[in-house]
Amino acid sequence: MNILIVGASGLVGGNIYHHLKAVSEFNIYGTYNSFEVPNLIRFNSSINYKSYPKIILETAWDVIIHTGALTNVDFCEENIADSEYYTVESTINLVKLSKVHHSKLIYISTDYIFDGKDGPYREDAQVNPLSIYGKHKLISENIVSQLNDYLILRITNVYGDELRNKNFLSRITQDLLLGNEKSVSGATDQFASPINALDIAKAIFNLIIDDKKGVYHLASTDYLSRVQFLQIIKKYFNLLKIESYKTSDLKQKAERPLRGGLNAEKFLTEYSDFHFTNIDDYILKLLKAHDAKL
Ligand SMILES: NC(=O)c1ccc[n+]([C@@H]2O[C@H](COP(=O)([O-])OP(=O)(O)OC[C@H]3O[C@@H](n4cnc5c(N)ncnc54)[C@H](OP(=O)(O)O)[C@@H]3O)[C@@H](O)[C@H]2O)c1
User: Fold this and answer.
1) Atom 27, ligand 1: which residue's CA is nearest?
2) Is 131 in the pocket of ligand 1 (CB under 6 A)?
3) Is the CB of 108 under 6 A from ligand 1?
4) Per-residue model confidence as pLDDT tens digits over 55-70
5) By percentage, how much of the chain surpasses pLDDT 70?
6) Under CATH, what is the fold of the domain 2-162+194-221+258-277?
7) Could you tell me if the CB of 98 is within 6 A of ligand 1?
8) Which atom from ligand 1 is nearest to the alpha carbon of 162?
9) C-beta neighbour count of 249 within 10 angstroms
10) What does CATH list as the number for 168-188+224-256+283-293?
11) Whose CB has fewer CB within 10 Å in the chain, the N or C terminal residue?
12) Could you tell me which residue ranges the RmlD-like substrate binding domain spans (predicted)?
């Protein structure tokens, strides 16, 4: 099976790339766009697909996993054309490529397609994105869902191992593991269901093997505000100082879904043996790896 992972230099794509390589016999190809990573193909999926590199255009892909998007929500709000280019155009082109090869397209989406009035959300909940980022992800979902064979996997608040250590949890724990004090502020009123990127990769492996189609929400059992997330980190790192705020105090460019998050019951009903890990599990793993280095 030939599998293309677009965005393998990123948090989610990187975890999918390494996990599928480790557990499967599939031919896995991964791409980067601006952040060069050895063994990955340089590729901008937003350009006209006819100008795609030969290897991307001509390989008979069984599965294309599209993780590429512009993910800075406030930047997207003020740079609508850029958001459209990286998030929507890339999807239009990868849908065309999927049609050429009759590939399954797996699209990674978000709880930002909901308005955050009554999360955690199930797959069939009413969509109503508040931000440009959310709107562009929803437009992309709608384009993907025109295919016969697609999976839309919605996730939120992802943490985990990544080359750039740029996710919320990694950024905070980096300093704390070095013994440095750190002050971090978090909203008391923004709720989501954080998930480890490795669990996303494991779920995708199952969904590919079983040739599943349609929409799935992936989420751990953690359903937390940002401050509650920080309080979990503080259990392990007393050097963390937490400041709390209300979202309305911040005057962020893009409106956030406040009671966001996702309900993964559909996935867990079909995969009753699957275990989503949580933030405690991940911090304990980091501490163990850190101690082993000393
Ligand atoms: N992280 C979260 O909490 C979260 C939550 C909900 C949904 N999601 C969704 O999950 C997906 C992955 O997010 P992430 O956190 O892994 O983001 P990330 O770390 O920023 O990774 C994004 C990846 O996409 C690549 N990319 C962006 N535009 C591209 C283009 N036009 N052509 C080819 N590659 C392109 C980037 O390449 P370079 O970096 O090399 O330029 C990078 O590898 C996104 O679709 C995002 O909307 C993420």
Assistant:
1) 68
2) no
3) yes
4) 999 999 999 999 999 9
5) 100
6) Rossmann fold (3.40.50)
7) no
8) 19
9) 10
10) 3.90.25
11) C
12) 1-270
- Mutate-to-test residue for ligand 1 from 11, 133, 167, highest number of ligand atoms within 8 A of CB: 11
CB proximity list for 27: less than 8 A, separation 6 or greater: 1, 2, 3
Cβ–ligand 1 distance for 121 under 6 Å, the answer no
CA 166 to ligand 1 centroid distance, Å: 12
Cβ–ligand 1 contact at 43 (below 6 Å): yes
Alpha helices in the chain (DSSP H): 11-23, 54-58, 73-78, 80-83, 90-101, 132-144, 168-177, 197-209, 226-236, 247-250, 265-270, 279-293
CA-closest candidate to residue 209, choices 151, 148, 145, 160: 151
Domain residue ranges of the chain, discontinuous segments joined by +: 2-162+194-221+258-277, 168-188+224-256+283-293
**What residues form DSSP beta bridges with 151?**
106, 214
Segment 126-156, tens digit of pLDDT: 999 999 999 999 999 999 999 999 999 999 9
Mean pLDDT of the chain: 97
DSSP state of 186: E
Residue 186 Cβ < 6 Å to ligand 1 = no
